[in-house]
Amino acid sequence: MYVGNTQCVFVLFVMLFFLIFSFYGWFYCQAILSPFQLPAFSRNLRNEIKKGRKVYFYDCGIHNAIINNFNPLSQRTDVGALWENFIIVERIKFLRYNETETNHYFWRTTQQQEIDLVEEQNGKLNVFEFKWNKNAKARIPATFTENYPDSITHIISPDNMESITAFPQ
Length: 169
What we know:
It is a single chain. The chain is α+β, with helices and mostly antiparallel strands and about 170 residues long. It has 5 helices and 6 strands, in the order H-E-E-H-H-E-E-E-H-E-H. The chain has a 4-stranded mixed β-sheet with strand order 3-4-5-6, with helices on one face. Strands 1-2 form a two-stranded antiparallel ribbon.
């Protein structure tokens, strides 16, 4: 009799495990697999893009699967886009973990000047430009700094990413 009860308990445990996983696992998969969007930041300057959106993935592997490119970084032409996706996700996770409420945007003008990430918190702006190559020419467009002079600007590369994600190198 004891063996039968143990088997019954085991079967019930396995069934319960699959029920819980099928319910919570679905939500977890939805969160990981679904892309998210950053809206355009605009304060009604004439040349700012107002309705655009940029799409990112919480898992860069999804991006790779969509474009069917799993080559090493040294053989890829989209390293900058992968880096931007990765660091924006890590920044958002860092802020959420620290329970920091922040609105996230990107900024672009009709002349194709762009800022990768604009964070708005309590009326203050933090502005980020992400560059995979630390030696690449990176600057915040003068159009932005002239119109938003109180914003705090950051140029982020793999060498200084811990300054915004708190991850050691």
